[in-house]
Amino acid sequence: MTTGTTDETIRYTADVVLLAAGHILLIERGWDPFKGQWALAGGHVDTGETSLEAAVRELEEETGITVPAAELRQVGAFDAPGRDPRGRYVTVAYTATLPTPVQPTAGDDATAARWWPLNSLPDLAFDHAEIITVALNR
């Protein structure tokens, strides 16, 4: 251990890469950081919750779309320092594929939710472009 270091606060989140017919579901962030930018549905893991449970909950809260936990597959953990300007955040990303897009309804901290063609994505918040790339290559 290096002397002079201090423990850093680490926050735990979950994100969802939801795919359907060559499209991906994204939300427009209603709050900073990255207010007004597009991102994956996701958010903080609540006390007593697993990241999988948080992924199901956050997807439903932010998009109105429910995907059963059994249909979500873990993409991986993303923990690069600096991935979130608020401090140290570690996210576990999940993916699922629907047969056809389901109409989303923006809620919680999302001001909009829509399906984007995978070949025409907007600039994304955080490291969500990297998460999508990893999910598509699994």
Q: How would you characterize this protein structure?
A:
With 138 residues, this protein is α+β, with helices and mostly antiparallel strands. The protein has a single domain, classed as Nucleoside Triphosphate Pyrophosphohydrolase, CATH 3.90.79. Helices cover 16% and strands 36% of the residues. It has helices at 51-63, 128-136; strands at residues 10-20, 23-29, 38-39, 41-44, 73-78, 88-98, 110-117. Strands 1, 2, 3, 4, 5, 6 and 7 form a seven-stranded mixed sheet that branches. The longest helix has 13 residues, at 51-63. It is globular, with a radius of gyration of 15 Å.
Which architecture would the CATH scheme give at its second level? Alpha-Beta Complex
Radius of gyration: 15 Å
- Series of H and E elements: EEEEHEEEH
- The CATH class, by name, is Alpha Beta
Tally of DSSP β-strands: 7
Compute the separation of the termini in Å: 35 Å
Q: Count the helices. How many?
A: 2
Biggest β-sheet description:
7 strands, mixed
The CATH topology is given as Nucleoside Triphosphate Pyrophosphohydrolase
What is the molecular shape? Answer: globular
The secondary structure category is alpha+beta
Helix content: 10-25%
Q: Poorly predicted ranges (pLDDT <50, ≥5 residues)?
A: none
Arithmetic mean of pLDDT:
95
- Percent of sequence in beta strands: 35-45%
**What's the name of the CATH homologous superfamily?**
Nucleoside Triphosphate Pyrophosphohydrolase
